[in-house]
Amino acid sequence: MNKNYFRIIRAGINSTFQDLGRKNLYHIGIPFSGAMDNRNYLLVNKLTGNNYDHPVIEFAYQGPHLKYHGDKINVAITGDVNFKIKKDKNFIDGECYQSFILENNDELDIISTNKSVYGYLAISGKFDLKFQWSSCSINTKAKIGSNNGEKLFVDQKIDVKEINKNFTNKRLDYVNTKIENIRVIKGTNFDYFSKESKKFFFENEFKVSKLSDRMGMRLEGKKIENFFETNIRSEGLIKGVIQVPPDGNPIIMLSDHGTIGGYPKIGVVISADYDKLVQLTPGSSIKFQEVDLNSAETLFKLYDLETQNLISQI
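The chain above was modelled as a monomer; its predicted structure follows.
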């Protein structure tokens, strides 16, 4: 019996194990999945002294309440998150982007995210997880990944099979920020839409719908008019592509998206803005800004450089 483990007192709204996801499986209908906010995923692993591809717990809105049993372990949380640590009968307010020690019978209560969606929990070691196609990432729609493809659940036991004994306290002064616009390049079916609709798409705001999850983000606003064909022969999809179904309300494909779809594609969110996009809560306003492919590539290089600079500060 493993002596180091977590017991789940409350599972949270959408708590799953995630890593960098699965590559090169689109041809059999399996998307990448993986952590929604890649930067916060990388930072939480660095804060706990792990390799960058270590599995973590991703949670949405409300995270899990966990009780730890075993040898002391280093833990960190990233995102804009409100959480508390219970030691004996004392409650300590937690700080994101700072590692801390959990000891036997300590509790960690991840209460909520603040005006954002996703947060990340990592430990200085390895969760005992099964991998599928070289990844533990859970896709609950497809029922694949560790934990039998399911969310974490109440009273579940999560074994820790290895603890990294480096207990050096690490922290990063970092604040999650929002950007004014989400930048996109034109989609392959951009010319299917009326001149007025294309102008509206870039000049006006949409609202993030409550009907959003790891698979896709539905938007609400003025109907985007398709004058050519509202349904097309199914084509391959990628993360960030913006489809427009017959009702005229755009849907942005996210990390657990289907790999093919039959709705015209008006645009694609650039990779540099994806982390910011997924943290937009229902009811948030979203405005798109067009950029060309060369600009998108340059912006991604800058995003990646900034991420590496942050990692180097830990």
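Residues 43 and 310 are 8 Å apart (CA to CA).
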